[in-house]
Design a protein that fits this description.
Elements: H1 40-51, H2 53-59, H3 62-76, E1 82-86, H4 88-105, E2 112-116, H5 134-144, E3 151-156, H6 162-173, E4 177-182, H7 188-192, E5 195-198, H8 213-232, H9 249-263, H10 267-276, H11 281-290, H12 294-303, H13 308-314
Parallel strand pairs: 1-2, 1-3, 3-4, 4-5
């Protein structure tokens, strides 16, 4: 009996016969099929050229990112939390961004949280099958006790990872704001969320390895999201991280530089202010610029909801040291410029 003729399938020749459609981030580029034969410099030039396209793709989503920032900041100002949920590389990036918030912005570790399919073990090693477990996502979200003040951002390169999609759906059912961050257009993740960010980066140099361009895009967006939200919440003063936690020698030196830059005070005055405020740079700046003691500085900041510029304006008539960072303050600027 004669068998139907078949065409041999070779790597990089396109999708296999009868294969289901795959998202762009998973596609194979035939023109990259021979990267294993390239000289190392040429291989690296190819990767670098592809990486250069990522910031442009992110730039195309800036309006959407700005809308998310403003929505998240408004909720966090009411005591809400920011939660990231993802699997594999996407989940690790969320955990990383959450972990950086306490030392950078002085936040409580419970304020920005990273959920990853498979739990903390999955941060350093693969947990097989975890990303396909919608029930794990539902349990992880339920354990947080989300409210309408909270936000959950589902992160997935393909936009169809079951864990991320289920986390968004579970969070939305609680009344929390939900955001989908994907690297393909028209994904199930973005469809499940109230707000969506779609950074289209196309196929990877190493086919399907979404830790590459997709991961870079996700990192850039998460950098923007957490940083801009914290700026809106008054966790910075100008471009100074005045809420930094000075928990080691490097950060203590950084706190000293921040206070000196913000106030123009001499080294002795800076050291005295930091000692009086137990190393809290934001309070030390207020001590020096408003000529108040440490307990008063703490009270003024509490009254200003942590916004150093507002606390300074409340005492501006007695401010003895003009500061390069003490420009007239306007209301926080939102995505529409209001």
């Amino acid at each position: 009996m004669n068998q139907p003729a078949t065409t041999p399938h070779t790597p990089g020749s396109g999708r296999a016969p009868d294969a289901a459609p795959v998202p762009p981030t998973e596609r194979i580029r035939p023109d990259w099929a021979a990267i294993d034969q390239l000289p190392t410099p040429e291989l690296l030039r190819l990767m670098n050229a592809e990486d250069r396209a990522v910031p442009a793709a992110v730039a195309g989503q800036l309006e959407r990112i700005a809308a998310v920032v403003d929505a998240v900041a408004a909720r966090m100002a009411r005591g809400g939390r920011l939660v990231y949920a993802g699997a594999g590389s996407a989940g690790r990036l969320g955990v990383l961004d959450a972990a950086e918030c306490p030392p950078t912005f002085g936040t409580d570790p419970a304020l920005v949280v990273g959920l990853i399919a498979g739990g903390r073990t999955a941060v350093t090693e693969a947990v097989e099958g975890a990303e396909d477990r919608s029930d794990l996502a539902e349990a992880d979200v339920a354990a947080l006790g989300l409210t309408a003040a909270d936000t959950l951002v589902g992160v997935s390169a393909s936009g169809r990872t079951p864990y991320a999609v289920a986390a968004v759906r579970a969070a939305r059912a609680t009344g929390a704001l939900t955001v989908g961050l994907a690297c393909n257009r028209g994904s199930a993740l973005v469809a499940a969320a109230e707000l969506g960010i779609e950074v289209e980066v196309g196929p990877e140099v190493l086919a399907g390895s979404t830790r590459l361009k997709a991961g870079t895009a996700q990192k850039l967006v998460l950098n923007m999201l957490s940083t801009a939200v914290m700026v809106r919440l008054g966790r910075t003063y100008g471009n100074l991280m005045v809420d930094v936690r000075a928990t080691n020698a490097k950060l203590r030196e950084r706190a000293r530089r921040i206070v000196a830059e913000a106030t123009g005070a001499d080294e002795e005055a800076v050291r005295h202010a930091l000692t009086a405020t137990d190393g809290r740079a934001k309070e030390a700046v207020l001590v020096l610029l408003a000529d108040v003691d440490a307990p008063t500085a703490a009270r003024l900041l509490t009254a200003a909801d942590g916004h150093l510029r507002d606390a300074l304006h409340a005492t501006r008539d007695t401010t003895p040291h003009p500061s390069p960072h003490e420009a007239p303050r306007t209301a926080p600027r939102t995505a529409d410029g209001r």
